[in-house]
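User: Show me an example of a complex going from sequences to structure tokens.

Assistant: Sure. Here are the input components:
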Amino acid sequence: MEDKFNDDAGVQWMLAYQRGDEAAFDRIVEAYSGPLFALFTRFLGPVPEREDLVQDVFVRVIRARERYQPTARVSTWLYRIAFNIAVNRTQRAGPVAASLDDAAGEHDDGAAPRREVVDTRLELPSEGLERSDVVRAVRSAIADLPENQRMALILAKYDEMPYAEIAQVLRSSEKAIKSMVHRARENLRERLAPFLQQELT
Amino acid sequence: MNPSCIEFRARLAQALAERPVAELAWHEHVLTCNDCRELLDAEEALDDLLASLPRPNLPPELARRVIARLAPERELDRLLDRALDRALGGSLHEARPQLAGELLARLAAPRELAARERELDQLLDRVPAVARPELARELLARLAPVREAARAERALDALLERVPPPQIPGDLAPRTLAALAPERAPAPVPAPARARVQSRSQGHPQGRTSRSEVLAHGLRPVAASTERWRVARPLLAAAAVAVLLAGAAWLWSVRRERAQGEFAPSGAGAQVAERSASDPQGQSPAQPQPERSNSPERAPAQPVESLDALEPDAELLAQLELLEAWDLITDEQLDLEAVGIDEHTLLGLSVQDDVESTGPGSSAPEAGEVAPADAKTPRNG
């Protein structure tokens, strides 16, 4: 099993860290903190505690140091931890955050928005500048997806992760992941139908 | 058309371009969707139709025509070679001046043949191709939903790609490492690695950050509660085990006391025993006789004579201890049954047991059963 992931630098770093090489852990943090931050941002929205969540991932890595087994790529393992943390955070703090602009409006069915309000001052300047109707609608549609579908879509679309690895992240089968991504895209097509028409014309 | 239809038709479109569509006959979607199965059948039928077209056979005179067509070229080559041999083999002046005329004369026939072949080719080109003009339209119509779905997918991809990538803070990794420093307690590492770690922590630029440095950065102290929890966890576990053991011991003692209290002769029981002593038959009309049980848990009661005053009989106490030794004493049903039997009833059972054990129907306990100590000892009431 170990030989299968020998070409993964992350696995080598993790094994070195397990043997006591602290610098290997530094390399793991440097390599994966950015992707994890991006993953949390895409999954949870611009919530203020994204950095804390990234830290939580690495805290779990530190605690799992002794019993680590290279059964997957390190990125897959870290994303699995991140998914658990993100789901726990969602269940603890409520639904996925959207921007402050979304909170002002209402849903099509007249119901009040069920997402928590996030102060957009917490966003980076570029994030605020890039907001537009389309981007906001896409983010909102992604945020409304069920957790598994959302994570599968994010990993497949934005991280270009193979279905087999997504299946490891979500502890599911490859076939189920295909179905999840397909259903996620169906949901997005329904939610984004007006924008899709514009895009097609 | 449902999503799996769209997915299947996209796959079908891909299969039409790359490989035989028959491979898709085993696709699971075809088993459940009539429309897609019909579409696949139509495509397979079209494949079969195209495959059944007759293989083009070469006309028998083609080889002759090709050779004939190439003959002038070959003759020209031969003549040219001969001319060059002559020219280069001797003086250029020796070359015959009428060589060109000879060449043209000898090439006249092949040239005429070649001209006829060209005319024939032009005639053949004028024959229209045997094809169904509506085939392309039909195919395009069939593939329209697939193409539409593919377009919609591309449009959705374009929308998703409009979301800008998250901006990652440039100093995220150093800040994360600084915040994690208290959590990175030294682990049991091999000796060389340990030496390296110690040297790093003693002033190396990449050594771990202290807790005060972390707090100075304004970062979340990750390990404060974690370290306390790590120390407290085994203590809490030990305390929980101790509490459980104490509870179990208390429960056991309560059960034991209750069992002893239920089987010991009480004041009322002693009075009943005295009444029974005055009645040699041991039968009281006011007391209903309970159903007799042959279970070994029912210890034979002491005869009336042995219950003098309030002092319990030593043999009865020994039998009660034997009962306590059995696991069955903890059974709730057995407890209930034992509670419902008073001393008088127990005495009656004892008399009946003794009578039956001495009769012809009595039998020794089977192997594995626990027999009362005096089960085979007949005793007169």
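The lines above are the inputs; the final block is the predicted structure for all two components together. Chain B is about 60% helix and 0% strand.
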